[in-house]
């Protein structure tokens, strides 16, 4: 085995960073030696800040070039640009939200010693405090004519080049740097907060109650997925990171919390790609005395309100400039009817596994492991229909054998009252008329257990505690689940690793 060769440019870059770090650490030592309260460290604990950079821009952003305000302000920010001349130094200070103000450090205002210290000690990336008059420079740049300054925190490592875009890999591995240098990164964090606030507001308007349910579970369930397994020393038992909160939220409905939702993390020990992450944020909601039609109406309202909260309209603009319309009433199509129309062959719930396997072979669709009627129908649907979906679309009425927690269709044999919502070509949400009959639910769990025994790692297990809850009576209920990360993808046009603040990476 040989070591991977390192380019000369990479070696030079590492040497440069090491040298800069050494110089900056020496400056930190000087700061430490000069502090009277050195026991508290090299940096002050608090600063006489009177306002923020953002507030100053809002109040004085339209000052004419050369204008003076007579107002003294004390602000702090990160140095992202610096230019030192003989008797006047300029620096751009950046707030956490990306707003900037210019600091002007002049010999006339601070004196020889302070100006020399600024030139010697302040580097790009440092957090500094400045106090002075708010003015507009001769070039019209909102500025503070500094009369007093101090270093609030030293950047021992240099910032990346602010004028060269970070690679995607660098962005997700060092999100803290991404947030400093890239507006889009900060805007995505803000958009996510607006989405969550909007979801909660919409639920509140419909009298839903937000709850929290266990993430460590003695038995995984609520979805077909492979779980992460851990061990509790206190209980001396294996536990599962939850793949879904569904079975606990349904317990809440049984208990009388008839409109309930949760926004929290799920974990699935599966692949990672542009639309999947092993750890992701999930919304699930359940409404008693509703069904999959009613919960579809609610989901459309949730998504459209979230889009308005972020973009000001149901027409959103993605990161690449593309506009996407989330407004209006969304299409609702039948899985079987749309598959038959797109494939040119009538496919019904009565189609046998052998017939579907043969058809899959004819059209080069991979046959899934542990193939069932439902898995084959869904694979064929994804091959023929999914690529043609452009507008937001509810795909209705799924095969029974892939949906063990869903009520059978009230008029169509062999299917269940389930929909998947497709937006931007990916599945954004799913909704059910929930199965509330404990007798049928037990039968479904038994069938799942048989699949598990044959090696299907995604099959559900029999959950006796959940069945006991159902046996106490659960009202007819509509339920839905939606990925928060994917909702951000639909609104912003970004990939999933961009919508998650700190995604899991190798």
From TrEMBL:
InterPro entries: Aa-tRNA-synt_II, aa-tRNA-synth_II, aa-tRNA-synth_II/BPL/LPL, Lys-tRNA-ligase_II, Lys-tRNA-ligase_II_N, Lys-tRNA-synth_II_C, NA-bd_OB-fold, NA-bd_OB_tRNA. Belongs to the class-II aminoacyl-tRNA synthetase family. One of its GO terms (molecular function) is lysine-tRNA ligase activity. Mg(2+) 2 binds at residue 427. Its cofactor is Mg(2+). Its EC number is 6.1.1.6. Keywords: Aminoacyl-tRNA synthetase, ATP-binding, Cytoplasm, Ligase, Magnesium, Metal-binding, Nucleotide-binding, Protein biosynthesis. The keyword Protein biosynthesis applies. Its main location: cytoplasm. This is Lysine--tRNA ligase. CDD domains: LysRS_N (cd04322). It is an enzyme of class 6 (ligase). Binds 3 Mg(2+) ions per subunit. Mg(2+) 1 binds at residues 420, 427. It is found in: Cytoplasm. It catalyses: tRNA(Lys) + L-lysine + ATP = L-lysyl-tRNA(Lys) + AMP + diphosphate. Residues 192-503 form the Aminoacyl-transfer RNA synthetases class-II family profile domain. Homodimer. It comes from Microbacterium koreense. Pfam families: tRNA-synt_2, tRNA_anti-codon.
């Amino acid at each position: 085995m040989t070591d991977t060769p390192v380019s000369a440019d990479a070696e030079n870059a590492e040497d440069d960073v090491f040298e800069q770090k050494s110089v900056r650490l020496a400056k930190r030592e000087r700061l430490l030696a000069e502090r009277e309260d050195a026991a508290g460290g090299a940096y002050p604990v608090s600063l006489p800040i009177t306002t923020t950079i953002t507030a100053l821009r809002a109040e004085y952003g339209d000052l004419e070039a050369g204008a003076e305000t007579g107002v003294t302000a004390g602000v702090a920010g990160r140095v992202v640009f610096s230019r030192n001349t003989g008797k006047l130094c300029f620096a751009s200070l950046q707030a956490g939200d990306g707003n900037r103000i210019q600091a002007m450090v002049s010999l006339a205002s601070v004196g020889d010693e302070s100006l020399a210290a600024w030139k010697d000690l302040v580097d790009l990336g440092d957090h500094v405090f400045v106090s002075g008059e708010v003015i507009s420079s001769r070039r019209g740049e909102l500025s503070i004519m500094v009369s007093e300054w101090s270093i609030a925190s030293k950047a021992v490592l240099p910032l990346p080049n602010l004028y060269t875009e970070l690679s995607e890999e660098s962005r997700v591995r060092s999100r803290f740097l991404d947030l400093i240098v890239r507006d889009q990164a900060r805007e995505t964090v803000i958009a996510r907060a607006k989405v969550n606030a909007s979801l909660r507001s919409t639920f509140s308007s419909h009298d839903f109650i937000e709850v929290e349910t266990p993430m460590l579970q003695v038995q995984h369930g609520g979805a077909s997925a492979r779980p992460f397994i851990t061990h509790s020393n206190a209980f001396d038992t294996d536990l599962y990171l939850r793949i879904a909160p569904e079975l606990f939220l349904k317990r809440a409905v049984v208990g009388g919390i008839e409109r309930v939702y949760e926004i929290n993390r799920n974990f699935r020990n599966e692949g990672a790609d542009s639309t999947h992450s092993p750890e992701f944020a999930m919304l699930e909601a359940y409404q008693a005395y509703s069904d999959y039609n009613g919960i579809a109406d609610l989901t459309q309202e949730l998504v459209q309100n979230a889009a308005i909260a972020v973009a000001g309209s149901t027409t959103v603009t993605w990161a690449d400039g593309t506009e996407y319309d989330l407004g209006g009433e969304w299409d609702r199509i039948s899985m079987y009817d749309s598959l038959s129309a797109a494939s040119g062959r009538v496919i019904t719930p009565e189609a046998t596994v052998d017939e579907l396997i043969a058809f899959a072979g004819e059209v080069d669709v991979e046959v899934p492991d542990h193939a069932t009627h439902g898995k084959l129908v869904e694979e064929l649907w994804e091959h023929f229909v999914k690529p043609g979906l452009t507008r937001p679309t509810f795909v209705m009425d799924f095969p029974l054998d892939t949906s063990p927690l869903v009520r059978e269709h009230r008029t169509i044999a062999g299917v269940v009252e389930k929909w998947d919502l497709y937006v931007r070509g990916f599945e954004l949400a799913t909704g059910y008329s929930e199965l509330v009959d404990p007798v049928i639910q037990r039968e479904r769990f038994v069938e799942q257990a048989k699949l598990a025994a044959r090696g299907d790692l995604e099959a559900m297990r029999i959950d006796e505690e959940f069945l006991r809850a159902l046996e106490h009576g659960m009202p007819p209920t509509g339920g839905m689940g939606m990925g928060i990360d994917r909702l951000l993808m639909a609104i912003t046009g970004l990939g999933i690793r961009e919508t998650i603040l700190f995604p899991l990476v190798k």
